[in-house]
Fold these 4 entries.
Entry 1:
Amino acid sequence: MAYKNIKEIFDHNERWIEEQLAADPEYFVKLSKRQKPRYLFIGCSDSRVSTEAVMFAKPGDVFIHRNIANVVANNDLNMLSVINYAVNHIKVKHLVVCGHYGCGGVKTAITASDEGLLNPWLRNIRDVYRLHKDELNSIQSINERYDRLVELNVIEQCINLIKTRDVQKALLEKRISIHGWVFDMRTGKLIDLKFNTKKVAREILDIYNIF
Ligand code: CO
């Protein structure tokens, strides 16, 4: 819905309240009780990748963190705090990293361009490109190469989750799993990259093991 002005947003809010109460007079009483979502969703800030639309979710279903190109950066206190709260306090069961084809952040990251303040952030994605340079450079079509980098970026960010203390601890306690998804906005389809949490953890924990 494209709002022409701020007033329309508040008008819509009033209509939304009426609709919720018509369907369930106790809706806001229930909503204001403690949240207990089972999913942490880490997605791109792109306005077209609405978590609620992608997951068909309602308020209370998903704990959400979004940034440019769904990056899990080791020194991002915001991301680390969200992971800590979701895993240790809300005790979500599933951690989802969801990228999307046509991601502007991913495209910019592999283009020779000075993006000023964004350079260090986009560098995270250039690192993914370097790790998978041979595979990516063997893809002739530039669009297919972008698509594959979107997928590889999701997988690397899933791996970055395993590198964090809170996720490692929860994996040892066998109470979470990690999922890598891509949203294809050309078709609306949500694609599961079938990230194998146990297998990847086994492969990398000899290096990244904290405990
Ligand atoms: Co994006």
Note: The longest strand covers residues 177-184.
Entry 2:
Amino acid sequence: MINIAILGFGVIGSGTAEVLKRNAETVKAQAGDEVRVKYILDLRDFPESEYADRIVHDFDVILNDPEVSVVAEMMGGSHPAYEFAIAAMKAGKSVVTSNKEVVANYGVELLACAKENKVRYLFEASVGGGIPIIRAMSTSLVGNEICEINGILNGTTNYILTQMKLHGKTMQEALKEAQQKGYAEANPDADILGIDACRKICILSALAFGELVPSDLVDTKGITEITTEDVEKAEANGQAIKLVARAAKRGDGKLYMAVSPVAVNNSNPLSTVDDVFNAVLVRGNTLGDVMFYGAGAGSLPTASAVVADIIDICRCLGNQPEQQQWVKSENVTSEMTDPMKADYEARVGTPLCK
Ligand code: HSE
């Protein structure tokens, strides 16, 4: 029996318990042993839940229990998620997370702590919900020099833009629906202002280039100024407006990073990514373009990525492989060179920076 603890019993935390229960036989076969949720840390009580007897309010109960080998952090926010993850790893427990904010802010320190303590810090669910993009970039694509990443990385804004385009809804109406479906952040400003997508491109860019850029150094523009007229105009021009987060290595070695709406050419596959779906288009120097597509938010899709990380750790108990380490970097610009810009407009579309 492998015991795990869930931190945060919200949309993703409860989804993780559900996936572990629904797919118990598969999880057991894949992990090599039964995976049991021993504790759930939350500020709230859940008297009606079948997990009511596992709820604890004190993190030390989990930290001091040597039977817990994996901690799944789904609390969101940087603090105390960061402190809990560090403490768990120092106690010899591997950590998995869906928390993009803490990975974007403290990925360097968290990965270093994992290495130092011979455990792992996995974060597949932090970008793209259920899309297996982190593992792909950490393994399958490592024979490439990554040249460019373009991602539709926020399900809420993509849902809103799709509802505006297909059903003429207002941004507020569509946002309310996204909140009801459990896609939006607790503070939806992080979605519509592009902050969430920015954190995610910082993570992908660190995986591709080994350099973690602070998200506040990335030029970030959300969708709040996009009107129904903009959406219609793009359509008439053979384009679709998408919130695109992008990163590329410029010829001079600087990192180009930006988040903004882009009028994506209909010839580019990102233009067809609708609703809550996310997609990441990665360009490798030997592979060319490869696109990862799937549900970018929501309880069970995201939880499936959390569970995959848990299984990965269970398979290597006592002998966790070393992970890529990142360095902090401020080597970033929001300026494309002229040739880059022309190439980008032809292949992808026109960034809208009004
Ligand atoms: N609020 C996020 C989104 C949740 O809409 O994509 C998934 O990270």
Note: The chain has 13 helices and 16 strands.
Entry 3:
Amino acid sequence: MKDALKRYFGYEAFRPLQEEIIGRVLNGKDCLVLMPTGGGKSLCFQLPAIISDGVALAVSPLISLMKDQVDALRTNGIEADFINSTVPPAEINRIMQSAKNGKLKVLYIAPERLSVPGFENFLRTLRISLIAIDEAHCISEWGHDFRPDYRNLRSLRQKFPTIPIIALTATATAKVRGDIVMQLGLDSPQIFISSFNRPNLSYAVIPKKNALRSIRALLDTHKGESAIIYCFSRGDTEKVAEQLAQYGFKTAVYHAGLTAPVRQRNQERFIRDEVDIMVATIAFGMGIDKPDVRLVIHHSLPKSIEGYYQETGRAGRDGLPAECVLLFSYADKFKQDFFINKTEDTAEQKNMREKLDEVVRYGNLATCRRRFLLRYFNENYGETVCGNCDVCEPSLKEVATNDTPDEIGSRSRVPNRTSYGELSEKLEYDMALFEQLRALRTQEATAMKVPPYVVFGDKTLREMATFFPQSVKALLQITGVGDKKCAQFGETFLTVIHRYAQEHDLHEKTRQNGADATTIIRTDVKPVYPGSTHDETRQLLLKKMSIDEIAKCRGLACGTIISHIETVTAVDPLVDIAHLKPSHDRLKMIAAAFTQSKGTALAPVRQILGESYSYDELRVARIFILHRP
Ligand code: ADP
Ligand code: ZN
């Protein structure tokens, strides 16, 4: 299994539960898998499909996704195809023939296909290895996305009694869960429920005062990266998109008022990285599995926590840090109250009101937001502080609340500034090389007519820009580089990396399997612009002033000064801050606590060390630990 994982997908290790689930399927047993978006559900049926004889049937309602999924499999060297209403009949015949001939490992079908006369007979001619039912909650009327066509699936268990069924979903309450098992007729299924925590997502709520300014500040820290902005109404989406476009941001809009072809086109442009920012109503999102969305902003209050979690869940599917920011105002609540009051059904009205109240509670929390979200879904989060929400880590708010518009443009992008997740996720990469590799990826993808992420994900490119692989062997060590992709793209990417490494006198770094990638190297980061607030702090630093002195001198809070120093040191590793260094003994204690907490968040470290270490001291120490190894 491990071998196939590396060879086909280029991954080193399984994510939680994947191995158990795959084992179960390979044993021919049914199971139900509940995993959050981005948890890695697809692999749970794709890997057993590769290992087993025959073809796996993957049922999915998301027709628009099938092509991308199939392209992604093929790029990894796995024979796959799809049949749905968009495929012309002659083509369907060809695909059916190649399935019969045992040429396919995975065949995607839409659920309505099962009611097409003759299709079941065709299925009987196949050697089916397993049946995967994606978005399995669609079978339940209790779920939020009931699809009558899913009822067709009931017959599968009877027609194919010995073939394992694996049902997968990202959203299921206990009631829906029971319904899925019953409706599909799963045979003593094992139910795998993974944690719904998404540690790589940071959560923040900021007051909606000057929405445009906050949004711009946030987007400025994610230049050239993908972001989604959810708005309340069609009018809002148009307005926000237009305002952002005036500032030079590349935006597209998506709402139910647009014609289907326009919506489709805009979605496509977003998926293919032709525009960075999608400004949308909640109509947007189902059927999007773009893995590299780095920022999800809610311009207005969501209607429910369920909705909020689902929408924010579209961020960071690739496991890399991503931000979720809610712009909070009571005016927006009152706007929703107005609509709720117009609802005729009183039970429904009460329900809507309760859901909205929970959202307001979320906005007003004085305790960890992650904990609240997980509790809402009945999950007991073990920690009281997560270190990656604005309550646990107030610096997460700063970008959107502190800056004046003039400084915003000068804020340099520091990849992990906003999310100090697991150390193993903390890659500090060469940004200029990364940009070159991204351009190369887009070029390859365009030639192949697939979305850029199908070629290589951001994580893969970031690792390349960290380790500078110079040989096929080294390239194969990079996450996401399997045999097929290495053969197909290896030379092209190696050439660019090699040239860049030579120009900048960089050398290949060994990537030890499974080891944390904490190497720090940056040859090209945007400067801290002269005259910016960061620069002012830097100038005073150079005069060897202490943090207190700088704060007093500038009339700013110490915390603000520290965040300037965080930025300045991340951008310029050579700036001399030796005079801020904590004493040897304290630094040693703090470093040990960071290691013990296996992360870079402050709160767990403070728990270990106790009150005699202030947050400010820990933050400063962290700079020395991260940037001055
Ligand atoms: P889901 O369907 O649960 O939303 P996906 O199957 O799309 O999630 O997986 C999310 C991302 O995680 C994809 O980019 C996928 O390639 C990646 N992924 C899945 N399993 C692993 C793994 N074991 N190691 C590294 N990346 C993985
Ligand atoms: Zn928290």
Note: Residues 403-425, 514-526 have pLDDT under 50 and may be disordered.
Entry 4:
Amino acid sequence: MAPADRRRARTDAVAVRRVPVLLPYPFPGPFDYAVPPGMVPEPGDLVLAPLNRRESVGVVWDGAPDAALPESRLKPLTAILDAPRMRADLRRLVDWIAAYTLAAPGEVLAMALRLNALRPESAPIGWQIADTIPSEHRLTEARRRVLAALAEGPRGGAELARAAGVSSGVIRGMADAGLIVAITLPPRAPFARPDPDHPGPVLSVEQQGAAGALRQAVAARAFSVTLLDGVTGSGKTEVYLEAVAACLRAGRQALVLLPEIALSSQWLERFERRFAVAPAVWHSDLSSRTRRITWRAVAAGTAPVVVGARSALFLPFPDLGLVVIDEEHETAFKQEEGVVYHARDMAVVRARLCGAPAVLVSATPSLETMANVEAGRYRRLHLPSRHAGAALPTVRLIDLRDAPPERGRFLSPPLIAAIQAAFARGEQAMLFLNRRGYAPLTLCRHCGHRMQCPNCTAWLVEHRVRKQLQCHHCGHAEPIPPACPVCGAEASLTPVGPGVERITEEAAATFPAARRLVMASDTIPGPHAAAEAAHAIAAREIDLIIGTQIVAKGWHFPHLTVVGVVDADLGLAGGDLRAAERTVQLLHQVAGRAGRAEAPGEVLLQTFDPAHPVMQALLAGDLARFLAQEAAQRRPGHWPPYGRLAALIVSAESAEAADGTARDLARAAPRGEGIAVLGPAPAPLAILRGRHRRRLLLKTRRDIAVQPLLRSWLEKVQPRGATRIDVDVDPMSFL
Ligand code: ADP
Ligand code: ZN
């Protein structure tokens, strides 16, 4: 075409309007679509768009269309859906998370859309009395009761039948006779308004100070981050509920993120005590109907408070006035599958995008958060003592070399004595071991063979109750074989080491009269079981609780005074950057379950290494000094939080393919001042679900952003065959 013709073509045809649409798939960005005449899409509109001969839901995105596609190939949007628009702050959150984690924006959008209730709840049908009842009509007793029930106002069919004590046939008959007419009931608000003025506890002076500061942060209607830290039982929850109250009084919505919502029955009860009604709850196990109702209520602003798991971050709050992240140090906030993101950090981002305050809460704040406090980015409110004068528990170290358990057993004499003493005083005790099942390893006494997962570089864990060997990484399970699969020796397979099942067995033999309760993810499968367990403990129907990390959560058991940690060294093995920090956090949380009311608590840690800084920190209860030591160790090497870290995990079906791609990555690794690449090395879980895994670690100074480095690095390397490269920015797990 000659230049003149081109110009004419452009002026002749009415230019097709195009819009960028983000689709919930891992494409690099939004695609352009043509806008059919008469359609006026706005950013955030949910649309139906053709994609590969099918149609996909997408969201009209912001910014200029990219215009790369010629008009002739542009496909028109099919329809704008009748659904609430995706808000600008959520769209920015999607962009932000994608940019930070290097996930495709569409993958992040998919997380936000999964929550979305596209199908509106159909308006409920009800009945009311017809305007004119034929007076000559003689009413049966049943029909009279129906009219009486409707005299107070319209009702839904099922409710009406119940109230009048009639069958649905009677109601239908009355409708046919023109006595009652069907109407659409106004939608009932699914969540009652929590009452901020419902009388709460009288706060101590310290608590009042902290609550006042949080109330101010809410009143400021501006982004800020506050760390609320304080010893276990200091009343942090009561304090931040005052911030929620302030948010409610301001007529805005509040979001509270909890690391494990299934274990939060006590939290929910407390919320109800404070505000007279339950909050909206959000997690992945909700029925699709509840999900739809909740999502709509959040979008309509009629769910004033939402307590949820990390996915609640993507709910469409129109007026978010407060974000609380309770137990901010918990690694459960990190999502390890799919889009790998840290819900705590992204919650802070969401708060910033909404201009709302964020409150991070913990008795054992993460080093990351403490570094932000020290740098002046976060404000800190500190509650130094337990509520109502309850003392912090005393901690004792039991050196297992000096006081070993009996052969083949795991509870040392001093620990047994302390538990017996608690029972004698009519108090409760708890045994903590962060390991499910009966034994972490099963070994043939005859040939030394170790039972290993066929899909993973991992030992199989014996679950004696289920008569199974299980892989805790891939879910593989097999019956416990009667003979060694290698040498054939019968009855030679021996459990090595303890899990909670084995400790339970030992406890049954040691404390036969004690009423025991096991709290592990396989014995406490859901919120209902957790609530029942908590009630049984509070009602003193239990003497001894034996549990995994579930028991470390924020439980408040007033009669529990002795906590025994079976293997305090457990989390310290392995080269994890945060092994010491996490062990201190976990054991401090477990210890914090003891002595929360009048009776003083005692915590006993069984260890082979009492001189270890972690044991000494727990003994002294001096977390601040421990954090300072950790900081001093990490700072010079620019380890997080004093530097940045990103992991690349290469995985393939063959070791050669994984090695090949890992080597290509190593050759193309970014270089420069303040940049280091470690690896490739086989991952500790060198084979997972049958895939061979290699790891590389990019470490930079804090002032260097890892994302641009990662992007240009990955552009240079073509993964071999079916090899995958997963990116984990700010890795928490190094397996
Ligand atoms: P934390 O969150 O710091 O572990 P909690 O908020 O769970 O502490 O408080 C510990 C216990 O003390 C809870 O049972 C709580 O209801 C109670 N408590 C805290 N502060 C008060 C108060 N001012 N008045 C009455 N009870 C309180
Ligand atoms: Zn496995």
Note: Confidence is low (pLDDT under 50) at residues 1-13.
